[in-house]
Amino acid sequence: MDKTEKTVEKRSFRNEIVLALIFTLVAVLMSFFNVESWISLTILEVGLLSLFLNDINRLLDVIIAVLWSGLYAFYCYTNGFAVNGVLVSLFYLFIQLKEAFKKPETKEIVGAQNKLKTHETIALVIVAICLAVGSYFLARIWTGEVLVIFDTLSAVMLCVSLYLMLKRTPEYFVIRLIAMIGVASLWATRALLYGLQTGSLHIVLMFVAFIIYDNIRLNTWTKNHANVEEKTKSILESEEYLNAQKKYNQENPIGLPGKSIGVDKDSKRK
User: Fold this and answer.
1) Which DSSP helix (H) or strand (E) runs through 40?
2) Distance of CA 91 to the CA centre of its chain
3) Which residue from 205, 213, 211 is spatially nearest to 36, judged by alpha carbons?
4) Taking the CA of residue 180 as centre, how many other CA atoms within 13 Å lie in the half-sphere pointing to its CB?
5) pTM confidence score
6) Mean pLDDT across the chain, nearest whole number?
7) Residues 265, 266, 267, 270: what is their CA dihedral angle, to the nearest 10 degrees?
8) Residue 149 to residue 131: CA distance in whole angstroms
9) Is there a contact between 167 and 116 (Cβ–Cβ < 8 Å)?
10) Are 96 and 62 a contacting pair, CB within 8 Å?
11) What is the rounded CA–CA span in Å between residue 139 and residue 188?
């Protein structure tokens, strides 16, 4: 890693710390002036903590995943968002557990090679629609919540984004942004309709933090990826490489051997 890449990573890490402190300060002030409850600070801080501790230690990842899922399910239940409470909490926990126990060398990177195939996209859309319809009617019958459509759509979109994150597809960034905005809007609507001291605004802050952190890390990854591509391009276009390629072509006008040396009897070129 060269000086440029280190600078990019340090800048990203510094920005993440500053943002975490700002979000924490705003949340504490909201509780101090009785705009929000002190208890709702817990899930916000756990959410911010999960951003820093992700992929540091498997056991820590599992603990954070269980803690965040439990807290989010509790807040959704107390605020009447059954679909978010069940789908998002369980799916997030499943994804995090799967990621925690996956071998590091098997973790794919985001890229065009991971783009969903047509049949995979169709299957995902069908499953999402079925999940949304089923969740809507169950929540409507059992809980009778007012914002059930909003709750259902935001939860299903967030689950789809988590699946795309697991697959490391480039579509993940767009779907996750839409899902995060939807869930944040859901909690903001809840705060406007039923009052502020319910933990709703702290949850909004948490998802806004997720959106900002996603953009910071995406920009960092893009810069690092661009640096790697630039280095590769520089090597391939360097005078040393071009001279070596020219020399090889002159010495081997026919190209590579037709058969492998040491395996086939005849290693002559054809």
Assistant:
1) none
2) 13
3) 205
4) 19
5) 0.69
6) 75
7) -160
8) 12
9) yes
10) yes
11) 20
